[in-house]
Amino acid sequence: KKKQANKVALQQRLGLPVDASVPMIALISRLVLQKGIDLVLECLAQMALMPLQFVLLGSGDKEYEQRLLNFALIYPEKISINLGYDEQLSHLIEAGADIFLMPSRFEPCGLNQMYSQHYGTVPIVRHTGGLADTVTDTLPQTLDDSSASGFVFNAAHGDTLLETVKRTLLMYHIPEIWRRIQQTGMRKDFSWQHSAEQYLQLYRQI
Known about the structure:
By secondary structure, this protein is of the alpha/beta class. 52% of the residues lie in helices and 16% in strands.
């Protein structure tokens, strides 16, 4: 219920135009090839022409850092790039953003996609490793059975990521569907208690 207030606080902190209704996409990551930052850079210019805001917190490859900073200079009303790591800001980003981006090439576990679902921040992830295990794509059948908790794409390509962003924004503008996706993610239990119970069930079956 405080998502919009958190978004406004984040916009104020980062100097972005204050608008609780604009969809905000966030990314918190090491800026390295594994994390798919190159895929984001491939489509960021096109994203900047869409009605959205993009917020990034992270550090890593200096070439990626500079290219991202260049985008922020070109589109200061749309893009906020924050290099380094800030624990308080990372929590505010998770709480204030509407959509969380994790386009990793590989990700054995991944944590932010789980944090995001807890915060009601809908994740966009690539279908790999722990991301595939913890996020259920939004499709007609997963909406029908109330399992949809995010948006998933397969090919490690900027065009594929961009199409998934477009698909996500379409759902964002249908409030009743968006709320259902948020609530499904928030109800998920990623605790060790839940995992341990699953292991116990498996041992009993064996």
